[in-house]
Amino acid sequence: MVAVTQRTAFGVAGVEATDRFDATASVLSVFTVVQLLVYAGLQIPVGMLVDRFGPRLLIAGGAALMCAGQFQLAVADSVGAGIAGRSLVGAGDALTFISVLRLLPAWFPPARVPVLTQWTGIIGQLGQIASAIPFAFLLRSLGWSTAFTGAAALSVLALILSLVLIRNKPSGPRPAAAAAGGPESSLAAAWRQPGTRLGLWTHFTIQFPGTVFVLMWGYPYLVSGEQVSAPMASFLMTFFVTVAILCGPWLGAWVGRHPLRRSTMVLLIAGAMAAAWLAVMLWPGPAPVWLLLLLVSVLAIGGPGSMIGFDFARTFNPASRLGTATGIVNIGGFAASLISMYLIGLVLDMLYAGGFSNGNLYDLTSFRIALAVQFAVMLVGIAGIFRTRRIIRARMASEGLDLPPLREALARERQRRRSQRRSGGQEGTTGELED
């Protein structure tokens, strides 16, 4: 939760950062792009480290780095100093999430891990509420330095709690270590597994639109482009988290019941996000609040939906390389996010320099044109999903596991439910969609 607070705090400070650092849109986007570049670049090394040393040490180290980064940003008065602070935040954030996910299979049975993974993401999203409401209030009321110093203090608390409370595994006899090669062989084996790559493309495709919206461009777009009031923009950011919280457990339970239909759910979410953005972009003039609520709702589903990528990593890899595989998956969404964030800022600056924006950097029409680059990024991810899914299904077929067409599977699921209702719910609860 604290890590997500630090990750998203800069997203509500975009307007103040423009004034503090006298930055253009593309320069401002570099703050978050560098942060995510550091985060994404450390995913595989962190995955290897957590497989070797365990989560506790890395979570504590991540909290220390994020504390240093937010304090650096609190005192920064130049672009270079500010970027250095966000780089430290990105490094600390990178140490945290994979390590937390690595704890789950060590403490809980496999059947519970999909739902608990969603709950982990949900608890993390509370940090987004912290950045959207109390942090934003501190920023407006007490100023830049006080707000970011307060954020740094949160990581001190996280550091203390992680050292006092976290244990890598339950006490008791240590299981026999699985045979494994060196880091290179672990990384190569994880990458060769098409399920790992399917997880990467899943995360790439449906995680980045919500991340781009919350971390960088959503708040300026709502306030300066759509002319939404600051309190309403904060409400929409909070609503984003609320929808993610409500959808997370349901998605986790659905994945647990229908593991062979996970990629279908991912593609449905991707299609819904593209349709929602298209509706907002084609609306004549500022979009009504109800349409913005719909957009935020659909984008929010992408957060828990992208957690399906980690479930691919878990089910297609042994425990000995789970951290490495999770790191590979986690690169996907953040690589897509940093590419999109920078391109959006670049397009905004180009339109402004060319006179298209009528002297307003955050003109609504310019914003919509810039945000449309997300469609191209999403198409790359969808192509990757189809390609890796085809490889996996071909392997399944060669092993004698044929996946029926979705329409047939849905019909069998409806028939099973009717039969279950007639028999008073005594039949098995595993859906036919798994077959």
Concise description?
The chain is mostly helical. It is built from 18 helices and no strands. The protein is 80% helix and 0% strand.
Amino- and carboxy-terminal Cα gap:
37 Å
Overall average pLDDT: 82
β-sheet strand percentage: under 5%
Number of helices: 18
Question: How much helix, percentage-wise, in residues?
Answer: over 70%
Order of helices and strands: HHHHHHHHHHHHHHHHHH
Number of DSSP strands?
A: 0
Global structural class: mainly alpha
Q: Are there runs of 5+ residues with pLDDT below 50, and where? A: 174-184, 426-435
Annotation keywords:
435 residues, mainly alpha, 80% helix, disordered C terminus
Topology:
Elements: H1 2-9, H2 14-21, H3 25-41, H4 43-53, H5 55-75, H6 79-107, H7 113-142, H8 144-165, H9 183-192, H10 194-225, H11 230-257, H12 262-282, H13 289-306, H14 308-316, H15 322-353, H16 364-371, H17 373-398, H18 406-422
